[in-house]
Write a structure and sequence with these properties.
12% strand; Rossmann fold; two-stranded antiparallel ribbon; alpha/beta; single chain; globular; 355 residues
Length: 355
């Protein structure tokens, strides 16, 4: 779909969307991450809605400043809001190391190396009081979002809206996530894999500047890490709050040493490959992709990882070992080959040309 410009400003449109949610949904959840967009979404929701549920999935990989900001935000929630903070062991991708391609946050066996301790709050849920256990939680499956939606909606008994602070101008994939499966006649509502639960994107059409204008004009407390990033001259596209060490967020690892040395030191002790990322210029590495042999590159990986890569290439209908894009993906340690860049097909270029 093409962009359609309205006479409303983005604030008026967001309030109208939240009013629709208020009138058509039984329960409302706000997904909070500590970033500017979820901070904005939470503030807007409180303008319109009562009885909100607010949750945070803590992957044990935030900067300490971010952790403190989220803790302050949760402690300041009004009496009518219901907070949930999850600190559960979860197996996740570690894109910083070929020797430890996965790591488990809140791993009880690594307790002495946790980046920060589990907050001592009544709204924090751990292995000891895991309310998602009966809904099928396991550390290996990334289904926490669905399980939590099932919990709040009582397995679909109540129509539930999950407010997500996602903005479409950040990437085409985010635009598609919002608009590819519209519900209730609105392109900013999407079905989830939980019964009778829907993702709602009230600020999907806001710009970077819109977000900060609202936060400033309304004196909304925000994560101080943004100020640190701005002071160090980061480009707008790089001023992002991210947790975990996945393929996307790893690009920001080097700057963390300057932003918050104490957090960076804790990252070093917790996850393999953090230090290496500060000494490698990925841009220069990727420039050499055309001159790297696929078989030679495979030999640099541990046997178990090498077998995974070979299996994915052999099973794929589109991946070829001699494809420079495959080489680039592997040089970027994308062992799942999920981000193999390809030239867009002519039909796709035509479909998205008006964006």
């Amino acid at each position: 779909m093409s962009k359609i410009y309205l006479l409303q400003n983005v604030y008026e449109a967001a309030i109208e969307r939240l009013e629709f949610v208020r009138d058509n949904f039984d329960r409302v959840i706000v997904a909070f991450s500590g970033g500017k967009d979820s901070t904005l979404t939470l503030a807007l929701a409180f303008e319109v809605l009562d009885g909100l549920t607010v949750y945070f999935w803590d992957k044990e990989s935030n900067l300490l400043t971010t952790r403190d900001f989220i803790l302050d935000t949760f402690d300041a929630l009004p009496a009518g809001a219901t907070p949930y903070w999850f600190c559960l062991p979860y197996k996740m991708r570690n894109a910083l190391s070929v020797y430890e391609p996965y790591w488990t946050c809140w791993n009880p066996d690594a307790r002495e190396r946790w980046i920060y301790p589990i907050p001592d709050r009544r709204y924090v849920y751990t292995r000891k009081n895991n309310i998602l256990e009966e809904h099928g939680y396991t550390p290996e499956r990334h289904n926490l979002y669905r399980l939590f939606a099932e919990l709040v909606s009582e397995r679909g008994r109540y129509r539930t809206a999950i407010l997500v602070g996602l903005r479409a101008d950040e990437s085409l994939n985010r635009f598609r996530a919002v608009t590819k499966n519209p519900q209730f006649g609105h392109g900013w509502i999407a079905q989830t894999d939980a019964p009778n639960c829907y993702n709602v994107y009230p600020i999907y059409d806001w710009s970077f500047g819109d977000v900060w204008v609202y936060i400033n004009c309304n004196r909304i407390p925000y994560n101080p890490v943004y100020d640190l990033m701005w002071q160090r001259g980061l480009l707008k596209r790089n001023i992002r709050i991210s947790q975990s060490f996945c393929d996307v967020s790893k690009q920001g690892i080097p700057i963390l040493r300057e932003l918050e040395p104490e957090s960076f030191e804790r990252f070093l002790q917790r996850v393999d490959g953090v230090n290496s990322m500060t000494h490698v210029d990925l841009g220069e590495v990727l420039k050499a992709a055309a001159g790297v042999d696929y078989d030679f590159l495979l030999q640099l990986y541990p046997e178990n990882v090498r077998e995974q890569i070979q299996s994915r290439v052999e099973r794929s209908q589109v991946l070829e070992p001699d494809d420079p894009n495959v080489i680039r993906a592997l040089l970027n340690n994308d062992i799942r080959l999920k981000r193999v860049n390809r030239a867009p097909r002519a039909d796709l270029k035509e479909r998205w040309k008006d964006l």
